[in-house]
Design a protein that fits this description.
Layout (H helix, E strand, L loop, with lengths): L1 E5 L2 E5 L2 E6 L2 E6 L8 E3 L13 E3 L5 H50 L20 H86 L12
């Protein structure tokens, strides 16, 4: 961008491209920086025609901005892909190791399960001396088997207690029903007794009425008059 001084005014000379659209002239200046921002006015070559002052702002070119921003964006994407790859390299072997370890423990628990006391023959002794680690391993498995036996015993006992409780509840229900039936029978007996008493009272009343009627209907005995001598 070149500048010339004429009559106290600064004339800028730079490469520009004109675009004419619907009575509007758009002009793009090249090789301009932010320092060139300010108030400007347009004039003809003979400087007879001049436009009012207007603020000229500098904006970066889209092509240059994209070209400058693409390396940064590509660099950030590279870092993201690299971090994801490192995480995958760490996570995948860890998951494989955990799965293998879990399967090995499960297989070992099924294969190395201690034999029950009934299956072990009495009087059979090992031909060689056991190592300390083997003895500790056997002791730990024996403790585990004892705990499992205790748990199973507790479970069976709890189930037996539950059955007893259910039986007691059934017995109590039967007892309540029996008591209700006995009370109802006693009430029925009392009602029957009251009915019998009422019947007897009615019979006695009828008998009394009959007696009274019989007395009324009987002829009175005549008195004999004795003659005096």
């Amino acid at each position: 961008m070149e500048a010339e001084m004429t009559d106290g005014d600064i004339i800028l000379k730079t490469q520009a491209s004109h675009v004419f659209t619907d009575r509007v002239v758009k002009m793009t200046l090249k090789n301009v920086t932010r320092e060139d921002e300010g108030f400007y006015r347009c004039a003809s070559h003979d400087r007879q025609l001049q436009s009012p002052e207007s603020w000229l702002s500098v904006r970066p070119d889209r092509g240059n901005s994209t070209s400058e921003e693409t390396p940064a964006s590509t660099g950030s994407w590279k870092w993201i892909f690299a971090s994801c790859g490192v995480l995958l390299l760490i996570v995948i072997p860890l998951t494989v190791w955990l799965v293998c370890h879990y399967r090995y423990q499960k297989f070992c628990t099924w294969s190395c399960w201690p034999v029950s006391k009934q299956e072990v023959p009495a009087g059979v002794l090992p031909a060689t001396k056991l190592d300390v680690t083997e003895v500790q391993w056997d002791l730990s498995w024996m403790e585990m088997s004892n705990l499992l036996e205790k748990d199973s015993y507790c479970g069976t006992k709890i189930n037996a207690l539950k059955d007893e409780v259910w039986q007691l509840q059934d017995q109590l229900q039967d007892r309540d029903e029996f008591i209700k039936m006995a009370v109802e029978k006693e009430k029925e007996k009392e009602k029957e007794k009251e009915k019998e008493k009422e019947k007897e009272k009615e019979k006695e009343k009828r008998r009394r009425r009959r007696r009274r009627r019989g007395r009324r209907l009987r002829p009175r005995p005549r008195r004999r008059i004795r003659s005096r001598p």
